[in-house]
């Protein structure tokens, strides 16, 4: 659970005392009880206690949402709820290690909790040298392996038939920690044990020639490819992928990322890639000529490297009529792979109108690409650069009234000023996520990087209790600050306290 606060500006404060009497006194300042005897019954009892506490917390927050909450009390409840969630997960994990296979005697609710905890999308990475030969469908959480297939046949069927739950297989070239023969044996065992279900894998190329004996196991099974990412983790010019992608049929391939690699010169075929919807590429001219036949089906595009001239990007997005999500992840100014035919532009170029685009992720300096597009129906904007180009893009797209979700990273005063300008421009944003590097330091030193945003969010036209109207983000209901961090103390919640206080005291 992230650091999440719900904002309600229309509640009647006259109900405060009545609702406060209804809210139970939970004494959350006490430390959560930890079982002394590390055994399964004690852990089960502790989990039941945590479940009861979480239910009380939820009930209290629902009651308190009926009025304008006191800042300290609501923040205290939200932070406690997050801590108790984390505590429950740790208890469930400890209980798992004490419970012998086949692990079927535990209640279904606990199985669901452990299962959902294990398959976090950020932790389902399984290096091939860590696959035990006797495991069926391995899943990895940090360094611990979970034998999910041992739960029961029903769970196994769910795992095998749902690609979203499949672990991601990681292979490196050259292979690490294991010799080639053992790596091949483990890879074969993994492929055989997954019963022909689609496989998701990531290949990291570092140096040297391709280990064809290892990768042949994957090259010979294109019909099982699900989500594939091939990463070039080595300094030097791009190298070709040793695979004739244009000749193979991939009936289940839904996502393909080929970062920093030279694709075969022959164009892809739409018939060979019928389910491909997510594509991550370097937007170089020779790459564009290869992927153009499949672009009409692409709904999510990751652009890792962009050519110096915006014409290439213009050509790329213009071929994606179904595009719903766009990730701008890089910009290059090198001169390799030049193709003049992609740069012949006569006069000014009108922006490509992406009428179906709902999500835009700006993860790198992307001023030129933004000048090539317009998204009149954009709903979600994530911006880690916050330049003036983003503001111009919103104005040109006329999407200030369609944006409902903003995810902004603020590092300096310029980005802070641009964040405020963007928030003033939008009128229907209800969800705001802010990320501040070194947030405790910014709060302690009253930095303007943080202060400008607080001042903007606290502005109101009528500073009265009953007729106030906030000028910036008047529809804001949900605020997340540094939500990817799990706080172990209340110190860093000062930012949340300040922001809520400024919007509630006017």
Please render the helix and strand layout as text.
Elements: E1 4-6, H1 16-22, H2 40-64, H3 71-98, H4 108-118, E2 125-127, E3 138-141, E4 144-147, H5 153-161, E5 168-173, H6 180-193, E6 199-205, H7 212-219, E7 225-232, E8 239-240, E9 255-259, E10 261-262, E11 278-283, H8 285-291, E12 300-306, H9 310-318, E13 325-328, E14 352-353, E15 359-362, H10 367-371, E16 373-374, E17 380-383, H11 388-397, E18 405-409, H12 413-425, E19 431-435, H13 439-444, H14 448-457, E20 478-481, H15 494-504
Pfam families: F-box-like
Protein name: F-box domain-containing protein
Domain F-box: 105-162
- Beta percentage is 15-25%
Gyration radius from CA atoms, angstroms: 26 Å
Q: Would you count the extended β strands for me?
A: 20
Distance between the termini: 29 Å
Instruction: Give the averaged pLDDT, no decimals.
Output: 72
Give the count of helical stretches: 15
Low-confidence stretches: 1-37, 100-114, 133-152, 333-347, 486-495
Percentage of helical residues? 25-40%
Structural class: alpha/beta
Largest sheet: 14 strands, mixed
* Spatial sequence of strands, sheet with the most strands: 1-20-19-18-17-15-13-12-11-9-7-6-5-2
Identify the overall geometry: globular
């Amino acid at each position: 659970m992230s650091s999440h606060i719900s904002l309600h500006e229309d509640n009647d404060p006259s109900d405060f005392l009545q609702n406060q009497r209804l809210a139970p006194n939970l004494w959350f300042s006490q430390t959560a009880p930890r079982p002394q005897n590390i055994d399964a019954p004690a852990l089960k009892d502790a989990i039941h206690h945590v479940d009861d506490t979480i239910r009380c917390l939820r009930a209290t927050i629902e009651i308190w949402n009926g009025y304008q909450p006191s800042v300290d009390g609501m923040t205290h409840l939200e932070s406690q709820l997050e801590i108790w969630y984390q505590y429950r997960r740790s208890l469930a994990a400890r209980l798992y290690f004490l419970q012998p296979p086949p692990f079927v005697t535990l209640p279904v609710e606990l199985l669901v909790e452990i299962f959902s905890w294990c398959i976090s999308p950020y932790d389902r990475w399984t290096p091939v040298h860590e696959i035990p030969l006797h495991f069926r469908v391995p899943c990895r959480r940090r360094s611990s392996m979970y034998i999910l297939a041992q739960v029961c046949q029903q769970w196994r069927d769910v795992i095998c038939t749902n690609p979203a739950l499949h672990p991601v297989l990681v292979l490196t070239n050259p292979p690490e920690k294991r010799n080639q023969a053992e790596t091949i044996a483990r890879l074969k065992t993994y492929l055989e044990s997954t019963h022909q279900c689609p496989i998701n894998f990531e290949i990291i190329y570092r140096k040297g020639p391709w280990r064809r004996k290892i990768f042949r196991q994957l090259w010979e099974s294109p019909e099982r490819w699900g989500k594939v990412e091939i990463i070039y983790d080595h300094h030097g010019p791009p190298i070709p992928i040793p695979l004739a992608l244009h000749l193979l049929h991939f009936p289940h391939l839904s996502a393909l990322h080929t970062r920093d690699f030279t694709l075969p010169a022959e164009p892809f075929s739409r018939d060979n890639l019928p389910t491909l919807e997510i594509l991550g590429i370097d937007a170089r001219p020779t790459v564009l000529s290869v992927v153009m036949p499949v672009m009409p089906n692409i709904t999510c595009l990751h652009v890792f490297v962009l050519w110096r001239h915006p014409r290439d990007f213009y050509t790329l997005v213009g071929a994606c009529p179904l595009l719903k999500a766009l990730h701008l992840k890089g910009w290059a100014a090198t001169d390799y792979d030049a193709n003049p035919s992609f740069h012949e532009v006569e006069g000014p170029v009108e922006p490509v109108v992406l009428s179906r685009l709902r999500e835009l992720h700006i993860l790198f300096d992307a001023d030129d690409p933004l000048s090539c597009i317009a998204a009149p129906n954009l709903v979600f904007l994530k911006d880690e650069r916050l330049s003036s180009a983003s503001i111009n893009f919103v104005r040109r797209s006329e999407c200030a009234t369609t944006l409902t979700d903003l995810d902004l990273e603020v590092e300096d005063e310029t980005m802070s000023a641009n964040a405020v300008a963007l928030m003033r421009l939008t009128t229907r944003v209800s969800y705001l996520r802010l990320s501040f590097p070194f947030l405790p330091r910014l709060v302690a030193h009253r930095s303007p990087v943080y202060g400008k945003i607080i001042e903007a969010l606290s502005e109101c036209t009528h500073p009265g209790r009953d007729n106030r109207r906030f000028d910036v983000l008047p529809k804001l209901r949900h605020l997340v600050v540094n939500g990817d961090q799990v706080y172990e103390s209340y110190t860093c919640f000062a930012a949340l306290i300040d922001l809520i206080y400024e919007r509630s005291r006017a």
